[in-house]
Write a structure and sequence with these properties.
The chain is mostly helical and about 80 residues long. The chain has a domain at about 25-75. The chain is about 75% helix and about 0% strand. The protein contains 3 helices and no strands. It has helices spanning about 10-20, 25-45, 50-80.
Length: about 80
C-alpha cells in the first residue's frame, strides 16, 4: 500500500476550481439518457415506435444543453476576475 502524500495547496486549489466543471458532461449525458429511456418505455407501451424515443431524445438534448449553459454561466459569474495591470 502506497503512503498518501498531502496535496500541496496549489493542487488543492486547482481541484477546487475544476470541481464545478467536472460534473457538466455527466449531467448532459444523464439527462439525455433518462429522457431516452422514458421515450423508449413510452414507445414500448403505447406502440408509437420510434417517435416517442426520438422526441424524448431531442427534448433531453434541449433540457441538458439548457442545464449545461446555466451551470457554466452561474460558475463564471461567481468567479472573481483578476485585475488588469
Amino acid at each position: 500500500m502506497a503512503a498518501q502524500t498531502p496535496q500541496t495547496p496549489q493542487k488543492s486549489k486547482v481541484w477546487q476550481e475544476l470541481a464545478p466543471y467536472m460534473n457538466i458532461g455527466t449531467e448532459l449525458a444523464g439527462t439525455v439518457g433518462v429522457f431516452g429511456l422514458v421515450g423508449w418505455f413510452a414507445d414500448k407501451y403505447v406502440g408509437t415506435t420510434p417517435w416517442g424515443f426520438v422526441g424524448m431524445l431531442v427534448l433531453g438534448v434541449i433540457v441538458g444543453m439548457t442545464k449545461m449553459i446555466r451551470s457554466v454561466l452561474k460558475s463564471s459569474k461567481s468567479k472573481p476576475t483578476a485585475p488588469k495591470p
